[in-house]
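Methods: example folding runs. The two proteins below were folded one after another, and each record is reproduced exactly as written to the output file, sequence line first and structure-token line second.
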Amino acid sequence: MAMGKMNLGRVILGGLLAGLVINISEAILNTVVIGARMEDLLKARNMPMLGNSAIASFVVLGFLLGIVTIWLYAAIRPRYGAGPGAAVMAALIVFFLAYVYPTAGLVVMGFMSSGLMLAIVAWGLVEIVIASIAGAWVYRE
């Protein structure tokens, strides 16, 4: 299989779709699913709730994570082939680096319980797989 050039426009377009999935999912997670637990955790540590600027930063980071995920998909696509298999592979790599590793660090530091971490990473696994497949659907070379 010949190595073609990556379509940067489609990486960004697919990445923005993946980022939209991530941001919608994170909004549901952090308001409905674990919102009360996070509020209690922050209060117990005398930390303020997230303000608008922090939330805006997380939204931007969600879109960047989507773009990086689809860039990775495009990069591994020549080896793994186009489609959901490569999208899931890219998602699993991003899942470990952006979800499991940093969240586990918060547990190791004593910031959050392992139960809360498991809820967050389980949600994140589904989130990033769906986001990656959606963004990969848009990507074309």
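Second run, written to the same file directly after the first:
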Amino acid sequence: MLGISLNTHSDVPLYKQIVEQIKQRVANSQLKPGDHIPTVRELATYLQINPATVARSYQELEQEGIVGASRRRGTIVLGDIDSPQRLPLRQNQLVSMVNDLVLRGLSLGYSPDELEAAFTLNLARWRIQRNSPGHSPGIPAAASVKTLQVVGSNDVALELLVKRWKYQEPDITVEMTNAGSLGGLLAIQAGKADMAGIHLLDEESGQYNYPYIKHILPGLPVAVVHLADRIQGFMVRKGNPKNIQTLEDLKRPEISIVNRQKGSGTRVWLDYKLRELGIMPAGIQGYARELDTHLAVALSILKGEADTGLGIQAAAKSCNLDFMPVTTEKFDLVIPQEKYESKLFVSLVNIIQSEEFKKVVNEIGGYDTAHTGETVFIK
């Protein structure tokens, strides 16, 4: 019932376990505003616990404004954001919650940069969890007025950058599409993206990004802005229970992986290294299972659906996974030169080159910003 299960051996009181699991389901949109939840008696009978325990959990949820009870409608999930009467109350409540959390963090000695990095990581993780499973948006249609399309590889530092950009330029809308690095370049080629995030290793030259740009965008002048060097590695559950250290370990029959989608820079790198080592993908359990983002891979491992997968350290950190570094890659932003020279993109580049932005990216973990903001023009 509601998917709630209790651990009687935990130090967390039973009523608190119920509260947290219902909050999780509301946060994941598994419970939506207006949905009914079981009565106290129904849930107590199902969980085989004292009704007073369930009543206490419901009381706490009601005090926090998450559920509401009435004799006519029973207990329902609140959050009717479309109600004009509730909107000012909700906004004030949100400001108060965020303020309390920031104040607590600062009082414990965390810096504003550390808090921003933590918020970015966790918001990105929750966004993935709330999206429908297997959703793959593909390449978008042409951008509308004041709507900028960012297409390509998934990256937490890029999400942080876009948030700052939108804050500084409130008149714009930025739509982000996780279509993989190749998908980003193809969207630029088709005129359906204003900027692409890429990290593509060229097998012949051993160079990142530039060979692909020259091949896919011949004759199109572009600016290539370096966002950061990123650490890629194996994400595994705490303690690395299956002792996964190298790519050769993927051949072991008891190891299962979750892969990134074709066209992503991570997948291009993995396939290149498997060919180099003479490892056949068919011999790797789970190789055919594909997800669109680093965080989706991390969440899959956290849930026990796979033993490992390649991803960035920030994704592993956000899901409390262990991380085994295997390579460092260049993550670049590709911008048609005409757009790069516009006022909006001057604003973007100024953010990238600011010491404040670099500091927050370093706090996320798994990034090196020594060359962040360096720009190369390719014609």
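Comment on the second run: The longest helix spans residues 87-107.
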